[in-house]
Structures are given as C-alpha cells and as structure tokens.
UniProtKB/TrEMBL annotation:
Residues covered by the Rhodanese domain: 15-111
Organism (species): Haloferax profundi
Superkingdom of source: Archaea
Protein name: Rhodanese domain-containing protein
InterPro entries: GlpE_sulfurtransferase, Rhodanese-like_dom, Rhodanese-like_dom_sf
Amino acid sequence: MAKIRPDELDARLDDDTGPFVLDIRPEDHYRRGAIDGSHNVPVYDDVRSGDEDTLRRHLDDIPRDRDIVVVCKMGIVAKRATNILQSEGYDATTLAGGMSGWRGYQNGSVGYKLRSLFWRLF
C-alpha cells in the first residue's frame, strides 16, 4: 500500500502539479479542520462498513489526470478507499497517520516526530 508522509505531502502541495487531496471524513469533521485545498467526499462511514459503491458513485468528482492522496482521521479507512481508487485505475496513495498525523506535523509534536522516524525506518 502506497503511503505519503505529511511532510512529503506538504512539499508537494506547493507544486503547481500537486496531488488532489481527497478527504473522505464526514462533512462536519471536514468543516472543523482540513488540509488547505482538499476536497471532501464524505464516504468514511460507508467505506468503513464495507460499502465500496458509495465511493464509486463519486468517481466523476475525482480527476484521473492527477495523483490522489486520500485522507481520513487516522489513515485506516483511507487505506480501504485508496485500494478502491487503485482498482479503478487511479494513482492513489494514503496520507500516513491521516488528519491526526497532519495536525501533528503542523504542530511539530513529539508524537509526530516519533511516528515520522518509524515511517522512515519501516
């Protein structure tokens, strides 16, 4: 499973050809805080429960000519969504640690620094 670390995503967001960030969390979570420029397709609960068709119904909202980075709360459900997108021919990856990892990166937390070291080693 392809993953991208928050620091790697942040560096790519500054690029004009940066990835399409697909936030699958529920809309109310997305409104409370999201990655700048991300797009919300609130299918988290459906994908979590095994309903892949809900995400597939939104494929027209997701560009095929860009890399896709899928975001959820911790990255676990985003992995499932990433697998669905890859099976549909998308170049999709999961944000390691999800929004929790992103916030840790943004805040420079010790927890993030330890997770980042782990991600780099393994």
